Amino acid sequence: MNGTLKDPAAEIREHMAACMQCGTCSASCPNAAFMDISPRKLWRLAQLDRMDDVVASRTFWMCSSCYNCMLRCPRGLPTTRIMQALKRLAAERGAPGSRRRQAFYRAFTENVERYGRVQESALMNTYLRRRANPVLALSYAPLGWKLLRRGKLHLLPESGHKGRLAPLVNKVREMEGRS
Questions:
Q1: Which terminal residue of the chain, N or C, has fewer Cβ atoms less than 10 Å from its own Cβ?
Q2: How far apart are the C-alpha atoms of 122 and 108, rounded to whole Å?
Q3: Measured in whole angstroms, how far is the alpha carbon of residue 83 from the centre of its chain?
Q4: DSSP codes, 47-64
Q5: Where are the alpha helices (DSSP H) in 94-165?
Q6: Across the chain, which distance is largest between two alpha carbons, in Å?
């Protein structure tokens, strides 16, 4: 390693150059129906150096990191990791919607770190506060009320899980160099 950082777009193109366009990633993806273009087509755009089109896509935002594509890829390409790298690249480039999505991911991660599991009311409270849009918050009120009435939403966090993930989160941060 020479100590210089690679251009994220170049690194993505480098991995995708080995893609043979078989479509296994697209066929394996449980979220493909929600993507504006298939993963196979996304990789082709990267191969053609059309990174602006790649970053403008919402395909990688729909990736749930299930690793099906990576497990089934005949070339063993790190497709899930590339999807994650594309999320970071889109945020760096200020792609439309990336700030909103990053805010949700940040709120979700903090929620799991804090409570050891997802606490829906705390998650939405944090996310909507960060969006600073009272109209958006009010638009979720009917759903929240319905879930609350049916006992599916708890206003106060359930105890018992708090802090159990702290050692794991700290280890990941250490491995990523973010301690």
A1: N
A2: 9
A3: 8
A4: HTT-HHHHHH-STGGG--
A5: 98-115, 120-131, 134-139, 141-149
A6: 59
CA dihedral 79, 71, 102, 48 (to 10 degrees): 20
What is the rounded CA–CA span in Å between residue 62 and residue 32? 8
* Cβ atoms of residues 110 and 126 within 8 Å: yes
What residue type is 157 in one-letter code?
Answer: P
Domains defined for the chain, CATH in brackets = 8-93 (1.10.1060.10), 98-176 (no CATH)
Condensed to tens digits (0 to 9), the pLDDT of residues 22-32 reads 999 999 999 99
pTM: 0.66
Interior angle at CA 67, CA 14 and CA 81, nearest 5: 35
